[in-house]
Amino acid sequence: RVGGAIGGSWVKAGHEVMFSSVDLEADKKLAASLGGGAKAGTTRETAAFGTGLMISVPYTALPKIGKDLADLIKGKVVIDTSNPIVARDGDMAVAAREKGAGLSSMELLPGARIVRAFNAIGYARMAAARDNTGPRVGMPIAGDDAEAIQIASALIREVGYEPVLVGTLATMGKHLIPGTPLAGERSPEEVRRVAATLK
C-alpha cells in the first residue's frame, strides 16, 4: 500500500519506477494503470533497475530480502518504510523494537545506505500529499549517510512532504514506527519540537 501510493506519486513526478511484490500480476496491473514510466518486475529485476530503492514489506520479509538481494542493494540508497509490528511479525518485531528499528533494518539489509521514512504516517493519505495546496506535512526521517539523506529528502519533497531529519538510525530510527510520539501528521516545526524531547 505504501509502495503503491508513493511509487505512483513518483511516476506522476516524472520518474521511472519499477514495482515488485509477491504478486507480479498485481504489480503489472498497477504499472499499467499508472502509465508513464511505471513498470513491474521480479524483486531482483527491480533491485537492479533502481538507482534508489524503497522497501515497504512486512518486517518478517526483510531478512530474506537482505539475503537474496545482498549483491544488488549494497551501496544503494534504500528508503526503509517497513515497521516491526508485534501483532503481525511476532517475536522478531519485539526484538527489533528493543534494538530499535533503525539499527535492526541496518543489520537485516547489510551494505544498504538506509534512510527510514514514511514509517509514522498512514498510507491512506500518502497518494494525495503531492496535490496538497496547503502547508506541507513534516516527514520525520532518520539516517547516517549524508548523501543518502539528501537523495531521499529530494524524493520525499517530490511526493508532497517536507523531510525533517530527526537523527541517526541508532538514536531516532527507533522512534519512527507507529505508536510513538512522532507518529501522525504534524508540521515540520512540530516534528522538530517533538523530536527534541526524545532520546
Question: Overview of this structure, please?
Answer:
With about 200 residues, the chain is an alpha/beta fold. About 40% of the residues lie in helices and about 15% in strands. It is built from ten helices and seven strands. The protein has helices spanning about 1-10, 25-35, 45-50, 60-70, 70-75, 85-90, 90-100, 100-110, 145-160, 190-195, and strands spanning about 15-20, 40, 50-55, 75-80, 115, 135-145, 160-165. It has a five-stranded mixed sheet with strand order 3-4-5-6-7, with helices on both faces. The longest helix has 13 residues, at about 145-160. The mean pLDDT is about 95.
Task: Describe how the helices and strands are arranged.
Elements: H1 2-12, E1 17-19, H2 24-34, E2 38-40, H3 43-49, E3 52-55, H4 62-68, H5 70-73, E4 77-80, H6 86-89, H7 91-99, H8 101-108, E5 113-116, E6 137-143, H9 146-158, E7 161-167, H10 188-196
Parallel strand pairs: 1-2, 3-4, 4-5, 6-7
Antiparallel strand pairs: 5-6
